[in-house]
Design brief:
By secondary structure, the protein is mainly beta. The chain is built from no helices and 19 strands.
């Protein structure tokens, strides 16, 4: 099963594609926009954002069902959901406090707890395969930073800083992060990796400019 965004109607809408049959279907006929789809670790639930009436909230849809469950209900923008490896929690970004920050809640919704409290704005949280860390993007002081923190918000560590750096994605071992960075000027965005201690930074060779990496799980 593959989730993707379809722009046929102008605004993005989340669609599901069954790769074995080629069947495609829109996730739901509601909201002006649906976007940012993410599967649960077992592939049985799809979380995504719905924009309607000036607010953006998170929803979850069991695969095969036509009735999504609303997970958040705030007058804000809630997006970028990412499941914990055990499927019990979701981390996401929200500007409900006036600026983008990272929150964690149970997969049933409600009771979201803010975990980021540093200066600047936090976004793109991604739970590590080991479950012990959440990677994020932080914008502060005119720069972008890629970092990690524990699921309770403690132990924040900035791994790299750049004119522009975003889109962290975890290696299956949970100890290396890939992201994209644009140094400015005519350089253009490229892919980089760094370990969770902020060491061993290296550029990943690509034929041209590259962004928004997504690391696959281990294949057997």
């Amino acid at each position: 099963m593959l989730a993707y965004m379809n722009y046929e109607e102008g605004n993005p809408q989340v669609y599901l594609l069954d790769l074995s049959t080629g069947t495609q279907q829109r996730v739901g006929n509601f909201g002006q926009m649906t976007f940012s789809p993410r599967f649960s670790p077992d592939g049985r639930v799809l979380a995504f954002s719905v924009e309607a009436g000036g607010t953006t909230n998170l929803y979850a849809l069991p695969i095969g069902s036509s009735r999504p469950q609303q997970l958040t209900n705030s007058a804000a923008i809630d997006t970028s959901p990412s499941f914990s490896p055990d499927g019990a929690y979701i981390t996401f970004e929200s500007d409900r406090g006036g600026q983008q920050q990272i929150y964690v809640m149970g997969t049933g919704g409600g009771g979201a707890q803010r975990i980021s409290y540093g200066e600047g704005a936090y976004s793109t949280p991604v739970w590590s395969p080991k479950g012990d860390l959440i990677a994020f993007t932080r914008r502060q002081g005119g720069q972008f930073h890629i970092g990690t923190m524990k699921p309770d918000g403690s132990g924040e560590r900035i791994l790299v800083s750049s004119f522009h750096a975003e889109g962290p994605t975890w290696a299956p071992n949970g100890r290396v992060i890939m992201y994209f960075s644009d140094p400015g000027g005519n350089g253009g965005p490229r892919l980089y990796s760094v370990d969770v201690w902020g060491r061993s930074k290296q550029q990943i060779p690509t034929e041209s400019f590259a962004s928004d990496p997504a690391w696959s799980p281990l294949l057997s």
